[in-house]
Design brief:
- This protein has 152 residues and is of the alpha+beta class.
- The chain has one domain: 3-Layer(aba) Sandwich (Chemotaxis protein chec).
- The protein has six helices and eight strands; from the N terminus they run ββαββααββαββαα.
- A six-stranded antiparallel sheet has the order 1-7-8-4-3-5. It has a two-stranded antiparallel sheet with strand order 2-6.
- Strand 7 and strand 8 form a beta hairpin.
- Helix 2 packs antiparallel against helix 3.
- The protein starts with 6 loop residues before the first strand and ends with a helix.
- The model has no long low-confidence stretch (mean pLDDT 92).
């Protein structure tokens, strides 16, 4: 398994910890990730989580920009200022800290959502709402391909 697939909703314990789903831990281990990079998602109340490759994707994109330009400045603020490394304990748990809670609204449960090369942390009801809207957009495009052109 080399992709993050599916979704799971898990409870947060009294110390603020939640177990990363075992299928996600298997992907992380298979990819050899020893540290986990997390960043606040743009446009979604979610946290993107992956290995060093997630950060490297943004750094590669930033390298194409003028290092003194506004786009580079915005991107570096997003990648570094809205990013953090998550510590995973020996049992495969992360702590749902203020960095995560402030952006997502997570309280006592976390939705882990596979996104292929990374996964996201969502507050479960926000995830369900977002998923329903995404599904509706896809259904609309399926029924009328011109909807896609209008939304781009």
């Amino acid at each position: 398994m080399d992709r993050f697939l599916s979704n799971s909703i898990l409870g947060i314990d009294s110390k603020g910890r939640v177990s990363i789903p075992s299928t996600f831990r298997q992907v992380l281990a298979a990819k050899g990730f020893r540290e986990f990079y997390a960043m606040q998602s743009l446009g979604e109340p979610a946290i993107d989580v992956g290995g060093a490759d997630l950060l490297e994707r943004y750094e590669t994109r930033m390298a194409a920009e003028d290092p003194f330009g506004e786009t580079y400045s915005d991107m570096s603020l997003f990648a570094y200022g809205d990013g953090a490394f998550l510590k995973v304990d020996p049992e495969g748990r992360i702590t749902v800290n203020d960095f995560i809670r402030a952006h997502t609204g997570i309280t006592d449960r976390v939705a882990f959502v596979g996104r292929n090369l990374f996964f996201q942390l969502w507050e479960p009801s926000r995830f369900e709402e977002h998923r329903a809207k995404a599904r509706a957009r896809l259904v609309a495009m399926r029924k009328d391909p011109s909807v896609r052109a209008a939304s781009e």
